[in-house]
UniProtKB/TrEMBL annotation:
<feature type="transmembrane region" description="Helical">
    <location>
        <begin position="361"/>
        <end position="383"/>
    </location>
</feature>
<feature type="transmembrane region" description="Helical">
    <location>
        <begin position="284"/>
        <end position="301"/>
    </location>
</feature>
<keyword id="KW-1003">Cell membrane</keyword>
<feature type="transmembrane region" description="Helical">
    <location>
        <begin position="333"/>
        <end position="355"/>
    </location>
</feature>
<dbReference type="GO" id="GO:0016757">
    <property type="term" value="F:glycosyltransferase activity"/>
</dbReference>
<dbReference type="Pfam" id="PF09594">
    <property type="entry name" value="GT87"/>
</dbReference>
<feature type="transmembrane region" description="Helical">
    <location>
        <begin position="169"/>
        <end position="188"/>
    </location>
</feature>
<keyword id="KW-1133">Transmembrane helix</keyword>
<feature type="transmembrane region" description="Helical">
    <location>
        <begin position="259"/>
        <end position="277"/>
    </location>
</feature>
<feature type="transmembrane region" description="Helical">
    <location>
        <begin position="12"/>
        <end position="31"/>
    </location>
</feature>
<feature type="transmembrane region" description="Helical">
    <location>
        <begin position="195"/>
        <end position="216"/>
    </location>
</feature>
<feature type="transmembrane region" description="Helical">
    <location>
        <begin position="67"/>
        <end position="88"/>
    </location>
</feature>
<protein>
    <submittedName>
        <fullName>Mannosyltransferase</fullName>
    </submittedName>
</protein>
<feature type="transmembrane region" description="Helical">
    <location>
        <begin position="145"/>
        <end position="163"/>
    </location>
</feature>
<dbReference type="InterPro" id="IPR018584">
    <property type="entry name" value="GT87"/>
</dbReference>
<keyword id="KW-0472">Membrane</keyword>
<keyword id="KW-0808">Transferase</keyword>
Amino acid sequence: MALRSLEGRVLAVAPWLFGLSLLGHLAMVAFQTKMTMVDLMVYRNASPELFTGQLYDWRLKEFSDQFALPFTYPPFSALVFVPLSWVPWGVARWFWQLVSLACLWFLTRKSLELVGSRDPRRALLWTALFIWVEPVRTTLNYGQINLVLAALLLGTLVSARSWAQGAGVGVAAGLKLTPAISGLYFLVTRQYRAAAWSVVAFAATVGIGWAVSPALSRQYWFHLLGDAERVGPVGSAINQSLRGALSRTLGHDVQTGPVFLAGAVVAAVLAGFALHAAVGARDALAMIVAVQFLGLLVSPISWSHHWVWAVPAILWLVHGTTHRLAKVTAVAWLAAIGSYLISVLLMAQESIWIIPRPWHLAALGWVYPAVGLLTLVTVAVALRSRERVEDRVDLLRQ
């Protein structure tokens, strides 16, 4: 594979490339170049409102002229972020940047380990590259939680202890709901004890939040949950879910109607084929990527920075299989997230709230969902092909 060949040529200088990449990013943090970290500001500034009862009425008006940002996570999440409100903003932003970078490195290293590569230079090389791809870059710029959650999930899902597996998923879901899709991994691998632990851990987060603020918990779980419009503009180019892509194509919010359901069924069927093949191949990383991509596709809102799962996906495509289609899909992902196309589309759209747009902008707005669906197809095809080859080898040995 050409990507592997190119990688091999630069492995020797990987530590230097990592150092330069890290220094470049830290310089941006120091000089606040496009580093508003607006989402971290929401987490930090809104969290004390947990104790005033105004958590879900609070809005951040700075840096958001078209949409004053609300706190959209469960009460337990606000409780976790409260300590950040105890330190100066400068300390909070540096702390979060360093934690996010550590999580990116862990996500990269763990993904490589799962495909059988333990060369530390390879982890440094890919981390140096991933710092600058769009989902990671915007996560760092916004001060988002995506890298932290992805590292938590990947690290615990492959743990040998069922309680740790379940706790990781349950706590992640308690922080931001959408990681709950990870429970599907336990079901397809028949790890029912881990699934039970995930339910217990999630229930504990809900219980803690309820104990701290019963009123806010009732408001969130019985009134605000499922309100996609409160989270943000469904039709904006930054929403790279199927619902966002379909809405931009048709010129109106498809909501959860027949069009969306048809798209969700397609995604679920492709994910099913991918998971069936991955389970048969006992490929943990392929299973995890398939589950996470299904969640990103069918979620009402999947901002472009939520697609940090492209990181382990690319590493699996490059190192987890030798199938020709994987090469095409890996290049497609690198082009999609390395071109900053979503940022271009954001500047090209008239408003984050106006869904209709020229056909070419609507078509380009399919980039992440399209390559995500292609990845599911690739996992299914590549692992089925591997299984057939292994069967032939077994027959020859007999």
